[in-house]
Amino acid sequence: MGKKVYIQTYGCQMNVYDSEKLKGILSDKGYSLTEKPENADVIVLNTCCVREHAERRALGRLTQLSHYKVKNPEVKLVMIGCVAQRIGERLFDFAPLLDFILGTSQVFNLPEYLENKTRLANVSFKDSQNIFDDVLPIRKNRYISHVAISRGCNNFCSYCIVPYVRGPERHRNIEDILNEVQCLSKSGCLEVMLVGQNVNSYKDKNYDFPDLLQEVNDKTDIKRIRFMTSHPKDLSLKLIEKMAELPKVCEHLHLPLQSGSSRILEKMNRGYTSEEYLEKIQNAKSKIKNLSLTTDLIVGFPSETQKDFEMTLDMVREIKFDSSFMFRYSIRDGTKAAEFEDDVFEKEKLRRLKELIELQKRISLEKNKGLIGEKVEVLIDGKSRRDKKSWKGKSRNNKTVILKDEKEGSSGKDLLGEIVPVKISDCDSWTLFGEFIK
Ligand code: SAH
Ligand code: SF4
Ligand code: F3S
User: Fold this and answer.
1) Could you tell me if 331 and 340 are in contact, meaning their C-beta atoms sit under 8 angstroms apart?
2) Which among 225, 227, 258, 348 counts the fewest CB atoms within 10 Å?
3) Does residue 162 have its Cβ closer than 6 Å to ligand 2?
4) What does the angle CA 212 – CA 216 – CA 221 come to, to the nearest 5 degrees?
5) Would you say domain 253-369 falls under CATH 3.30.2090.10?
6) Residue 50: CB within 6 Å of ligand 3?
7) According to the model, what pLDDT value does residue 388 have?
8) With 70 as the cut, is the pLDDT of residue 291 above it?
9) Distance between CA 121 and CA 195 in Å, rounded?
10) What is the mean pLDDT of residues 408-428?
11) Looking at the whole model, is its pTM more than 0.90?
């Protein structure tokens, strides 16, 4: 029996993808995977440091996981990902039982370290890392998968740590991407999410991002295509046109606004004004039928006044995002914004966040109510967590849909891994409920 590995993942789609790929690589080398850290010979923690809270959670979990090594000193304890990259070797002082600290460009080298090396930290960005394009990631969800198309980020938004922990932007070969999507499709996957910190700046040979969408649409058997994240400054007319035209590309655009105040956007180094953002959104809405829009928003950025905050509320009211990820500003050492005075009190940040969340919740409900009576196409990928009898899936515009288990409904039929028509009959702010149309 090979050694058992436990991998826990925090953070964004990129970390999820890295962990899935690492699972594929380790399993090719004869390791087996376990969901239980107490049974593992190797414990790996993949970490995020985008906000202080995320980093604290990762460090807390590391302390907990160290106990397994106290019980069994043979266990190898490994920290990978963005916290490993940011703190590097100093993590040995924090967690003396750690064996390996591997930065974001060293993750896939883990098997070598496990075989040959003793205790070590490597956070070099040098792309010596084999990217194992022939290894298929091991995924929890058979039907929906992430595929990385680029790594790193060159944008340096003033609040953001990602360019420091992920390094400069590097794009993957188009052939490798197409190959991975086609392999996934052959193994039963129906939907891919192309991921990168800023997918709109993708470039390989003469292919830009809209060309990549065209190629994935035309040259693979995948049924649905999504992507994340788009940067507003790089969102081109060509992309909007391709989204409207290509049948496999889903009608969902995640376009982080961050703030509705152009003054704050400038301090954030985002490269667009709120008016420019609005113009792009209006254009997208007019060209893409049934487009669903989601965004990221930060409240309490240095010097944000009540008036700036109200501009964010106004934009949210005007655009009516289907949903948003909303955050309190969190200082990240080493970023440009860390030099600004963090002058919005914590209590005020919380108040603004609460007000924003409440507004968004009302709008999400309103948007979902608008879908009642409509027919939507749902990819069924499992059972509802709350009600194990009901099927759960995702609509083309990225909403969770639960199928009501009615006598005339889907109860007797195995719908797993099928794309089925559903009539929406009810909703809350986060979920649609509907009936399978036979
Ligand atoms: N590359 C993506 C995602 C980056 S991280 C993008 O450009 O949108 C995801 C989100 O975390 C960001 O969009 C931002 O809203 C939030 N975020 C990043 N740094 C933050 C910080 N220091 N404080 C609070 N929120 C932050
Ligand atoms: Fe961070 Fe901005 Fe890059 Fe997104 S685009 S990862 S927010 S620096
Ligand atoms: Fe977090 Fe790293 Fe992603 S900091 S958001 S896991 S790139």
Assistant:
1) no
2) 348
3) yes
4) 175
5) no
6) yes
7) 82
8) yes
9) 27
10) 84
11) yes
Q: Residue 397 Cα, ligand 3 centroid: separation in angstroms?
A: 24
Of the candidates 409, 380, 410, 383, the one whose C-alpha atom is nearest the C-alpha of residue 395 is 380
Ligand 3 atom at minimum distance from 83 CA: 4
Protein residue whose Cα sits closest to atom 5 of ligand 3: 12
What's the rounded Cα separation, in Å, for the pair 95 and 6?
A: 18
Under the banding of pLDDT at 50, 70 and 90, the label for residue 385 is confident
49 C-alpha to ligand 3 centroid (Å): 6
CB of 159 within 6 A of ligand 1: the answer is yes
pLDDT tens digit string along 48-63? 999 999 999 999 999 9
- Nearest protein Cα to ligand 2, atom 4: 197
CATH number of 141-250: 3.30.750.210
Ligand 2, atom 1: closest residue by C-alpha: 160
Q: What fold does the segment set 4-124 form as a domain?
A: Rossmann fold (3.40.50)
What's the order of all strands across the beta sheet hosting 76-81?
32-33, 4-9, 42-47, 76-81, 100-102, 120-122
Q: Let me know: does 255 contact 295? Beta carbons within 8 Å.
A: yes
**Could you tell which of 153, 267, 270 is best to mutate to test the pocket of ligand 2, judged by most ligand atoms within 8 Å of the CB?**
153
Are 133 and 179 in contact, with CB atoms under 8 Å apart?
Answer: yes
Q: Is the CB of 11 under 6 A from ligand 1?
A: no
pLDDT tens for each residue of 9-30? 999 999 999 999 999 999 999 9
C-beta of 352 in contact with ligand 2 (< 6 A) = no
